[in-house]
Hints:
2 domains; 5-stranded parallel beta sheet; alpha/beta; 55% helix; Rossmann fold; single chain; 5 strands; 11 helices; elongated
Amino acid sequence: MFRLEKVFQNDDSGYILFSNFIKSLILFATAYIFVILSDNSIYELTDFNIFKSSNFFFYSILLSIIYFIISFFLKNNKDYTKNFLSFLKEDILNIIISIICSFTIIFIFRIDFRLEIKFIYLLTSHIIVLFLVKLYFNNLYQKLIDKNIIQKNIMIVGSYKDIQKLLSEKFDKILIFKCCMITDLSNLNLKLIRSEIKFPRFNENEDIRSILEYHSLGQIWILNGDKDKSNLLSKIFKFSVDTLNIKLEEVPNINFKYLLSNKFYF
């Protein structure tokens, strides 16, 4: 049966596309509410003709459509980011470009539009609403993770002893260990390893690109990464994959939520 986690499993592209689509609709809804309430009472909100005959009708349609198109083409990563800087880089930049494009189309096709002080108020409303929507999607993203709808395929990198320690812990279902790279594999009994580790095992001389693409990895966990693994780390860092350095001795009970809240990124 088709399930949402199959859409969101390997990266956040589906979630980002969904959030941008909702934002474009909310931009239009904000303009609709603003136009009606600026000169009418709340009881007139259902009167679409008021909005249709307003100065901002065509502008709002253009803005919403262009915002979604620009958000789609300017999306330069597959990971959803929750910080305020991403809001400035994505939402604010996109709406500025959308406004410029909307004005260009209005000018070229000579669509009736009067630039007035209400436009500043409307723009301010759009920015405030986009910020609130950003906070909402941040919260929703975390809930989808907690409910196992958004998942990350993970490769574990480390010594056999460290990988055994990690696998002995009970994790939430979000953690899908697809494969592992055992740094001391050449010194071990392969039959014993096959019986204890059920998913694919690799040594550090394997082709990293092939592993990433075949297993659709969303994260790489490097256990106790240090200078001894500098050659391996340099290979991994060539690729745009979420990489965490996990110091096992510093993580109490190896709790997943603790790992997420304490980013052991390189």
